[in-house]
Design brief:
The structure is a homotetramer of 311-residue chains.
Chain A (H helix, E strand, L loop, with lengths): L2 E6 L3 E7 L5 E8 L5 H16 L7 E5 L2 E2 L6 E3 L6 E3 L1 H9 L3 E5 H12 L8 E6 L3 E7 L2 E2 L36 H13 L6 H6 L9 H9 L3 H25 L3 E5 L7 H14 L11 E3 L6 H9 L2
Parallel strand pairs in A: 1-4, 4-8, 9-12, 12-13
Antiparallel strand pairs in A: 1-2, 2-3, 5-6, 6-7, 9-10, 10-11
């Protein structure tokens, strides 16, 4: 059976018709009207209508950043969109006449990796999405963990450092403040501001203006062999490995899938993560170490995962 | 259908016939011959034979401290018993002729609480057993989490404090070093050794010898209102709450069940845990707080949980 | 002998004629031309000329925020003023014809407290100035500590929390990020943003806009008994006490003087500091605890200390 | 003028006649009767008598582990010797008829390095003695810092890690728990117990018994190039550098002298210390970095420093 997956991002709505093998056989996009839920829903319905013109589909899965209720129908809270306790599935069912399930976007992407991507051989998966922020999804015994209120998988806000860096969530020392794109860029700028000579080439590559440093620039310089950029990415990787080790004490996954924009750094990120993971995992002498692998679905993951969850 | 649950402890083997409501309808014990697996298995088989004389049972569940393989048949490693990669289920099936499943003891006790005890209304449960050490068990979507190698639920060795107190597992800053009976007693002794005046009454109650302080003494003084003992237990509770909050970011349970010897302190332990949990849980303004409740099955939990897992 | 003390702040130059008892017998001010060292020096010289019209003075002491060379003549670096390795004493001697010494402003204020203020009975003093940032000065055996390059007393950048909050200096976890006005306001805003109910009254007092929270507002509400504001100040106080305890392990002062804008909170700040100090000081059972006292010289300290150092 | 220096250790009393150039021109030893102050004093007096037979001396300086009163006459507290608020100088003056000053042993050794050893060109010195424990001494403006109660220089008990490793002093996270011989050996044993493969050669060199690992063995293997041993020493060095950086924020010394048994590892210890120091020192772009140098006086430092302080 075909189903439609919709990935609602901050600037763009991406939708596609997905088959049972996880292939996208048709796709379209709309821009995101972020401030008005009704306009956003109309845009989603419009994209769905376009796709249904060519394909018979049985349902819609929607992935969105934010807290999604455990019933998979309600957006409890979304930082970037104008939703508070909003019955998104009800509205979209009314507009489209199709059954709708809603899922957190990191969960949808994780599910795509579990079903069709880097973890398709696994039974227990931890996915960590290292983008601007840090996303997470966990599948155990083949079941995506959602939790009591649908808030499971919020690895970003596990405490990495007591009394550590303040987080936008109102707590201190959240893992996201140590391993995500924002953390990478902040470290680069702060260390550059202090006159750290190791960061000289990075500042130079930013046109001499340390405020112009961004994540892709750090990755590019790291790939060119610049020691300062490599150290910055290695630090993010080290915390990624530490975080994964503390999660693995609890979940013991088969595999750890790493996605998100920062994962473009590849082994420059993953090798330090593997090393820190091995050094931080309890009972490592008595069990196999879960491998760190790169996500394989790219930016299709959101659409494919959401569509598959709708089946 | 009746089944037998066996709880293998460091000094005692406790076994019982358990019905489908989680009631123990017959029970017996043997002492634990810790150094020889064959003797230990013979003692288990002997207890089983006694119980089967009166009751028709369909299988045996065995709970044991240690790492149990994900197949629920093999003891990978047990700190206190002479097992290394030992086929315990095979041996007991050979001796008894009944199907056998093996489970980690904290998991077995957690399952009993989930099925028949403090979490019997829940769908997602976190159990934390605060005894000499710290045990954990997690049930999500009604499924006990075991993980890839059967090592899931090792909350004791999640990192609470980077570069913190060394743990016997070879890592630093493990949660168990902050919230367990050993941590409680160590804090009492160290602070007493430094001449902390708040701990004067506790030392006096230990006959003037700070080395004689133990967990029950601290609990007793705390219950009598002694400020020093209360502060010591509150500190354990605070870390319990912090640990639970970081786990809840990942799992989002309905309920948090607290068992183990230190839980005899009741709200002297749980109130600081609740307060720290609330202060450390991300997005607390957008979701209900999972309640902290005391375990309800007492020391029957190991037998009942193991028996139920055998069905 | 009379001398002139000059306190160069970010917006105002305050100057005064000071007698040998630390009394200011004449005073004047100028606004601070921050971007041009020559204009600033001219303004200082102009203020000095006004004061010399009425009083015979033997020298000038100048206090300024920034790193002052150990020779007490050169401004190595000042974050808010346009000085880099600038021969300030030479320039002012040329303009005024009087001998000039330059000192870090926190050191000048600390010296005033040591000579004429809250620590005038002491031989070893630690002063902590809890303003927007954190300043420090230490006097040991009656000698103001300046160090090799004149950088001594930078308590702000002692590490309080490894991998803690990033500091503007390019390091992480500096004490200033835990105990200063900026830290106070940041904690208030972050916790308010997370919906912490304890901070409701504070947000309300800020006209419903959490971004309008500032330090004096927190202090005012704390003095009115608001629990949220009191908790915020107590947290700053706790870190102040911890920082003082780790400094005292090294210096063992007679007295700890606390000044700066946040010290307006009085015992709401100092009592938590005292408690944390007592709990964090090594060998507390074997020695007296240094008292925490409020600075006594107010904003005269900068002028008086600089003038006295010029003698 | 000649004077006698006495270094009272846990097992041996070493005494010597020292000239004004810091040379020992005669020496003798006694064993330490640790449990009886009177016997110990008699042993010191006997050693002094022997030395005075050949040389005319003007006074005696005594160095001892423990807290020495600021009057330099009284032993407030000594962990390993039977002294509590003991008037050691009075007793020795009565027995010898010579003027006596008492000093903490780390202070005495530090003074020797400042006057005649590795810091003889310096005006401001930090000395860190990395032995079984961690000792410290600071000289600022040419004055040995003693503090209000004589407790200055206790770098061992500055907080390195909040909520870190418990210390024998009753606090948590003291620097001594991260950079000293005991910390080195504990890390080696714990990591070996966890089956860390990197420590395999070290366990083998200890005859296969990880409990037999000691500090000299780790140093020897590190000097032979063993990666595990080098990593262990580098970790101690890293914390040494971090500790020195936080102290330098306060004191800004010219030079950092490193002594004690662990310093036998030389640059295997000092290079990681230098790197961490540079990475952890505030305003490093605006000032010279104090060099780390090895102590130059060896085990003569205690005698020479004590003797010189007696002059």
């Amino acid at each position: 059976m075909l189903s439609i997956g919709v990935d609602i991002g901050g600037t763009k709505i991406a939708a596609g018709v997905v088959d049972e093998d996880g292939e996208i056989i048709a796709a379209t996009t709309r821009s995101t009207p972020a401030t008005d839920p009704a306009l956003l829903e109309a845009a989603v319905a419009d994209a769905v209508a376009e796709l249904r013109g060519e394909h018979a589909v049985g349902g819609i899965g929607v992935g969105a950043a934010g807290f999604i209720g455990a019933d998979r129908r309600t957006v409890t809270f979304a930082a970037n969109l104008a939703w508070r306790d909003h019955p998104l599935a009800d509205e979209l069912e009314r507009l489209t006449g199709l059954p709708v399930v809603v899922e957190n976007d990191a969960n949808a992407a994780g599910w795509a990796e579990f079903r069709f991507g880097a973890a398709r051989e696994a039974r227990h998966m931890l996915m960590l999405t290292v983008g601007t922020g840090l996303g997470g999804a966990a599948v155990m015994e083949g079941v995506l963990l959602r939790g009591s209120a649908g808030f499971a998988g919020e690895v970003a806000h596990m405490t990495a450092v007591p009394d550590g860096q303040w987080c936008g969530c109102g707590l201190r020392g959240c893992l996201e403040q140590y391993t995500a794109g924002t953390a990478l860029v902040r470290a680069a700028k702060r260390r550059a501001a202090s006159g750290d000579p190791l960061l000289g080439p990075l500042v130079q590559a930013a046109g001499g203006d340390r405020r112009a440093i961004d994540g892709p620039l750090v990755t590019r310089l790291a790939q060119q062999g610049d020691p300062g950029a490599r150290e910055l990415i290695a630090e993010i990787g080290t915390w990624l490995g530490r975080g994964a080790a503390t999660i693995s004490a609890l979940l013991d996954p088969d595999v750890i899938v790493v996605g998100g924009g920062v994962s473009a750094a590849g082994d420059l990120l993953l090798d330090p993560a593997r090393q820190a993971y091995s050094a931080s995992l309890t009972a490592r002498a008595h069990r196999p170490l879960a491998p760190f692998v790169l996500a394989g679905m790219g930016n299709r993951a959101g659409i494919v995962g959401a569509a598959d969850l709708a089946r």
